[in-house]
Amino acid sequence: MSTSSPVPRRGVLIGSTAAAITGLFAASGTAAAAAPAKKSTAYAPKLKFAADGKFKIVQFNDTQDGPRTDRRTLELMNKVLDTEKPGFALINGDVINGSPKTVTEVKQAINNVVQPMESRGIPWALTFGNHDEDSMPNGTNMSDAKILDFIRGYEFNVNAKNDKIQGESNSQLLIASSKNAKPAFGIWLLDSNRYAPDAIGGQDFEGLMSYDWIRPEQIAWYRDASKATELRYGKVQSLMFFHIPLWEHHHMWYGAQFTSNDADHEKAVKKHSIEGVKNEGIYTAAFNSGMFTALQERGDVRGVYCGHDHINTFKGDYYGIELGYAPGTGFGTYGLGGTENHELRGARVFELDENRDGVYTGTRTIFAKDLGIDMGTKAQPIDEPLPLP
């Protein structure tokens, strides 16, 4: 499989739904003034290491389907959870697509893909991607905020609600030691938002990626919460998850900021210990948010993992911070195309051991093709949506 040749992108994505973004910019087209984030207090742990000091995180990504989810998506999720038995699982954005026509159908589409965790009593959360509000033009009125309110009603959901900053899925989750209530590791969930506005300062976004970016107030929230956590507990090493990749995901793959050629990549593989494949472009935000420099400053995030680009699976070490992808999980959305369309459907697993230095011991991918799941190209929707709780 080629590691650099692109495949056709996802169709109507960039630009066509940019107008759907709301609340980010004033009518004049200039950036809306954001209220400064309030100083944070340290959160209490919601999760806990097992008695043996170990903990697993499973990252699913881009389940991205409607109320009759492809049955193989659920089979993949169920098999991964039964095999790995994680202490926490997340769907890292683009949980659903724009096909639902009613509020009930939105809830059914979400419920289908959270039931694998909920039915097993596994704590879980969602981050939001650029597609989760795509049903709104159909009249559902199911914004990310309303989706958040819905999912927080599940018994094992651990998403927080934070109305003070941009985005809906900004949360810090701490994992308590098996020995006491002090956190031994942490998880950051951010909302990477949706699409750039039509224009800023009278200038459109033609020639740019047209995706939105993590906002300064979100970065300020992370920095303040990180400092508060350190003040209370000491430095807590963590992993961070959000949907849309950083500019630095591109820079790491190519070993350069402003070129994208295979010769640079071959050098970058050695420099940054890159593993995995890239089969499409790295679809970053329109602007560089500065998130990576904030992570460097604080020094408490070991890795940043995204989705969004379904058929990229690579990871590497970029100046001391892992940057990587989980493969797309959903069988109902685009893949490699042709007879190999579903070959990279999968999940990513992260292993923690509080008895080891640094706690975080590594990550690996799991693919549906290795779990005996049908790789046929024909869609296989479930007969009926799973019963709503």
UniProtKB/TrEMBL annotation:
Keywords: Signal. This is Phosphoesterase. Residues 1-33 form the signal peptide. Residues 55-311 form the Calcineurin-like phosphoesterase domain. The keyword ATP-binding does not apply. CDD domains: MPP_Dcr2 (cd07383). Pfam families: Metallophos (PF00149). The keyword Signal applies. It comes from the Bacteria. Coiled coil: none annotated. InterPro entries: Calcineurin-like_PHP, Metallo-depent_PP-like, TAT_signal. It comes from Glutamicibacter mysorens.
